[in-house]
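From the pipeline queue, job 12 of 40. The input is one protein chain; the requested action is below.

Action: predict structure.
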Amino acid sequence: MSEVKPVSAQEEIEAANTVFEKYGFVFYDLAASSPKSDKTRRSCAVAVGTLLHSPVLFASMQSAHSLPVKALAQQCGVSARTITRHRDYIVAAALLIDGDYPILCTYLQTMRKEAEQCVR
């Protein structure tokens, strides 16, 4: 019986960075685009939830490696300016929640819950 080596946070960050680089940022850039206020964080959660629950928008983001700001803004009701300002954060949150990043996702539990509530 082979043992499965637990993945470390550093390994998850490195794996996420290879994905994030396609979008023009790295993990350590996220602090600059993270929402500071509760209202903005909720707006970002709405955008992330909409992105995750819209296969067309999510597939468009993945194929073009860019966030479809205008379409996302129209669909979720968050201003395009807010989405643009927090683009990297929204992309990273969506990719982490959708991907296989159990350690990093623990930091996004609040975002995931808010996103699920907003889409319902």
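Job complete. The longest helix spans residues 38-52.
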